[in-house]
Amino acid sequence: MNIRPIGDRILVKPIKEEEITKSGIVLPDTIDKEKKAEGEIIAIGAGEKVSKLGLAVGQKVLYGKYSGEEVKADDQEYKVLAHEDVLAVIE
User: Fold this and answer.
1) Model pTM score
2) In degrees rounded to 5, what are phi and psi of residue 26?
3) Structural domains of the chain, with CATH
């Protein structure tokens, strides 16, 4: 892959989760859910603000559902997020 985020941005590979109800019905992604999105960090920019967050490649993070810019490379979808779009690190 040849995408490198600049400044205080990170590149995230979204993790798509299917939601299953208690009765076993699979809810498609088209249903408007107010959940936060989850993704894996692929690359981190060299900005000062993003370096203070202590993020590392491979970590899973939560970000706002409508945050960032979607990009596609090598038939894979990614999101470029600003440092303030990252809400939490999943440990």
Assistant:
1) 0.79
2) -85, 120
3) 9-90 (2.30.33.40)
